[in-house]
Design brief:
The chain is α+β, with helices and mostly antiparallel strands. Helix content is 56%, strand content 17%. Strand 1 and strand 2 form a beta hairpin.
């Protein structure tokens, strides 16, 4: 992956902040889970496309419903983003579910379980 320029990094941060605000406060779709957050945003250097990584605190069905709600509200989100971020082009947004937080929590639980089992085995051998 190519290193982002300072300009592109600033654009990513601005779009991330505004996109989070739009999803949190302006969208009224009941399919979108209230515990939805934008983890990261990658705006292409030509400002035509944008990948928005979304994290949903909930089960798999809540994630699917949230993704469907965001995709149906994509036009509204893009217009709201155009009003709040002053860019030459408003990027076409692609929403992607980010599993990294759930994966990290699951790994943490597995590590805790292994540590607990190994400490129990140590006590049994003593």
């Amino acid at each position: 992956m190519r290193k982002n320029s300072i300009k592109n990094t600033k654009i990513n941060e601005e779009v991330l902040r505004n996109l989070s605000e739009i999803i949190r406060s302006e969208i009224k779709d009941p399919r979108i889970h209230p515990m939805t957050s934008v983890v990261s945003v990658e705006v292409a250097p030509d400002l035509k496309t944008c990948k928005a990584y979304i994290s949903v605190l909930g089960d798999e069905q809540a994630q699917k419903d949230t993704l469907a709600g965001l995709r149906s509200a994509e036009g509204f989100i893009r217009r709201a983003l155009a009003k709040s971020v002053n860019l030459r082009n408003t990027p076409q947004i692609t929403f992607i579910i980010d599993q990294s937080i759930a994966y990290g929590v699951r790994m943490s639980h597995l590590i805790d379980e292994v540590n607990k089992n190994s400490s129990q085995e140590m006590e049994e051998h003593e």
